[in-house]
Design a protein that fits this description.
mainly alpha; about 160 residues
Length: about 160
């Protein structure tokens, strides 16, 4: 068994990523509260914006989440007037999911909040450093088996802050 390392926390990549992740998740959650949505809502709205008309099951599979979690998220978006279920054109047993006009109005505001949070987080880096960091983080995320563009916390509990 290798000897344990006595490096301080500020020299540990896993600690720094966790610290920054928690920090930005909390700030993002606070900022989105002005729109009365959570990060999990933002994540699902972003996925819907990329392809409306998919069934609940197709969305759940694309996001890698249990169908019951998807139903709860969609119920929440529907109650907020941000998504609607319509009869699926190819399957009478399924519903196709669409954004509402309210969601189309809200989504640019939510994207602006996400952009502002990212800008605040990366303020100390120049353009080349930002691109390099993004490339490295994408490689690490891919290597860890995380599906592209899907937060792993969404599978557990969509009500937790930062879960999108």
């Amino acid at each position: 068994m290798p000897a344990s390392s006595n490096r301080p926390l500020n020299e540990r990549t896993n600690f720094l990523l966790s610290q920054l992740g928690f920090h930005t998740a909390m700030r993002f959650t606070e900022r989105l509260a002005a729109l009365d949505i959570q990060p999990s809502h933002f994540g699902l709205l972003m996925h819907l914006a990329q392809g409306e008309g998919r069934s609940q099951q197709q969305l759940a599979e694309a996001l890698g989440i249990h169908r019951k979690v998807m139903v709860g998220l969609l119920d929440d978006l529907e109650q907020r007037g941000l998504a609607e279920r319509r009869p699926h054109p190819a399957d009478r047993r399924a519903h196709a999911i669409y954004l509402t006009d309210a969601a189309r109005t809200l989504l640019p505001q939510a994207r602006a909040i996400a952009d502002a949070e990212e800008e605040d987080l990366l303020t100390g880096l120049d353009g080349d450093e930002r691109r390099q960091l993004l490339t490295l983080l994408q490689r690490l995320a891919e290597h860890s088996g995380n599906p592209r563009g899907v937060h792993p916390g969404l599978r557990r509990n969509p009500g937790l802050p930062g879960m999108a």
